[in-house]
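hey
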């Protein structure tokens, strides 16, 4: 297969977005924290960035009551340099002071999960190819995992490249990394 065909297949995969634009709003409610995670994953995939859990708080019964999410490179770089020049190391930081932030809390009485704080600001252009480049989105489907396991057990000497080609043919609608 030609390399140009591979690139066009990847761009076709990226352009296959849902018709609905996802949005996050203050006061938006969810039933479980798993539902919040799933929605955030889809939202970030659509917008073109990655997030991480900044903080998780528990109540007295060890039940999660609050999650705080932020952009993966939200921190501001603070160098810890010594005066001794021999100890200096020239490094770059991925931290860019990105503003995106969301605070989700479970209400005690109703047990509904609600967005209390959201800062939906971006200080740089977002990546439309996040589905390919974002490690957070590199997950195999359960069917693909079971097929890989089957290929390894049936023919233990099968090479990874052969398995990759078989999976690409079988799951042509899924981008396999």
């Amino acid at each position: 297969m030609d390399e140009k065909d591979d690139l066009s297949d990847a761009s076709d995969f990226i352009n296959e977005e849902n018709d609905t634009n996802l949005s996050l709003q203050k006061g938006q409610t969810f039933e479980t924290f798993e539902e919040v995670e799933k929605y955030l994953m889809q939202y970030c995939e659509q917008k073109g960035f990655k997030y991480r859990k900044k903080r998780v708080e528990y109540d007295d019964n060890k039940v999660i009551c609050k999650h705080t999410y932020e952009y993966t490179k939200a921190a501001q770089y603070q160098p810890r340099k010594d005066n001794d020049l021999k100890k200096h190391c020239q490094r770059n930081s991925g931290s860019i002071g990105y503003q995106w932030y969301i605070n989700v809390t479970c209400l005690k009485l109703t047990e509904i999960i609600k967005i209390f704080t959201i800062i939906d600001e971006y200080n740089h252009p977002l990546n439309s190819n996040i589905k390919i480049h974002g490690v957070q989105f590199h997950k195999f489907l359960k069917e693909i995992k079971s097929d890989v396991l089957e290929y390894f057990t049936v023919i233990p000497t099968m090479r990874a490249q052969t398995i990759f080609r078989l999976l690409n043919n079988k799951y042509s609608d899924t981008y396999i990394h």
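Helices lie at 3-15, 33-47, 130-133, 142-154, 160-170. Residues 21-138 form one domain.
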